[in-house]
Specification:
The protein is of the alpha/beta class. The chain has helices at residues 2-28, 42-52, 75-83, 99-107, 142-159, 164-189, 207-213, 231-244, 258-269, 295-309; strands spanning 35-39, 56-60, 86-89, 112-114, 198-201, 216-219, 248-252, 275-280. It has a 4-stranded parallel beta sheet with strand order 2-1-3-4, sandwiched between helices. Bound molecules: zinc ion.
Length: 330
């Protein structure tokens, strides 16, 4: 009995020692070995993965269809953050309910980076009613997200200077691909007839998209999915749709489509035929392992779906001919 007791004591002492060892190990871990990076959204994780290559294990906390505006970190998320070597998040208060967790992680000495931190604040959109706060949906402009790729490269180079040139080279190669995607968006969206160049979606995620690719954008709900659109706004939008002869509106994978349905009903009651032009990825990417589950595929899907629904010309399966694992229409 006594020896069993001693055995338990020794075991628990060993466990404590092991715990302490793992707490103190992280900062002294030799740089250049695989390290772990935790990201918030899939879009952030994707660009981090592109830049980190085989040097890090990258995971994201928010999966397919998850709304980052409302996301509260779970206990499991906090544990993952504590255990990680580096944290990347989108920033500009997109992940508003995670702020405390980021501050805590940064205070503990962990490198925590917002991929949007070096964007020129003067050039960011500040919508009316946001008290001068920038619109966080910058990934919708491929050229802006490409600048964020550079932020990832510089941040990883700071964390792991031994592989600086590799991170910069990975970023450069990926940014070349993104430049092609940006050009694809400019060229195909330009084929949409002028009067049809209006993008109506469930929430205001597409303002940078509209600015970059010359489309008027109307989101029915406020900038964050937390505000409810008034009936009045919906009626005004129906007036506009009927008057301009707009043929299609879009639903989003991470936002409820009840307001979009109200638009369809309203237009119908006035004898105007309006359809759902497709489902767009706004604040989350598609299913992991599919083309649409990458940043490239997410934007290719959005661009191609919008161009097709609004009467423009684009290849049936997008820039790389890889679209198709997501249903475009109902
Ligand atoms: Zn959003």
């Amino acid at each position: 009995m006594r020896s069993a007791f001693r055995y338990v004591v020794i075991l628990s002492l060993l466990a404590t020692l092991a715990l302490c060892f793992s707490c103190s190990k992280a900062p002294d871990q030799p740089k250049g070995l695989a390290f772990t990076i935790v990201c918030t959204t899939g879009m952030v994780a994707d660009i981090v993965r592109q830049v980190a290559g085989d040097k890090a294990v990258v995971s994201n906390l928010m999966g397919e269809g998850v709304d980052p505006h409302l996301y509260k970190p779970t206990r499991g998320d906090l544990v993952k953050m504590v255990k990680s070597d580096v944290i990347f998040y989108s920033g500009l208060l997109l992940e508003g309910r995670m702020t405390e967790a980021f501050v805590r992680a940064a205070r503990s000495g962990k490198p925590v980076y917002a991929v949007t931190e070096l964007l020129d604040h003067e050039k960011l959109l500040k919508p009316a009613g946001s008290a001068g706060h920038p619109d966080p949906h910058v990934w919708m402009d491929v050229s802006a997200w490409s600048q964020c790729v550079q932020v990832v490269a510089l941040s990883l180079a700071e964390f792991d200077p031994a592989h600086r040139s590799q991170y910069l080279a990975n970023a450069q190669a990926y940014r070349k691909e993104l430049a092609k995607l940006h050009d694809y968006a400019v060229q195909t969206i330009a084929t949409i007839p002028q009067q049809q160049r209006v993008l109506i979606t469930a929430h205001d995620a597409f303002n940078y998209f509209g600015q970059a690719y010359n489309l008027k954008v109307k989101g029915i709900q406020g900038l964050s999915t937390e505000s409810e659109a008034g009936l009045d706004d919906i009626n005004k939008l129906i007036d506009m749709i009927v008057a301009s002869g707009i043929k299609a509106v879009f639903v989003e994978t991470s936002v409820s489509d009840k307001n979009i349905r109200a638009l369809l009903e309203g237009a119908k009651s006035r004898g105007h035929e309006l359809k759902i032009g497709g489902s767009l990825f706004s604040d989350a990417m598609g299913q992991g392992g599919t083309y649409e589950g990458s940043y490239m595929g997410m934007l290719d899907h959005n661009i191609t779906t919008i161009v097709h629904a609004l009467g423009g010309r684009a290849p049936p399966r997008g820039l790389h001919g890889k679209l198709g694992s997501v249903t475009h229409n109902e």
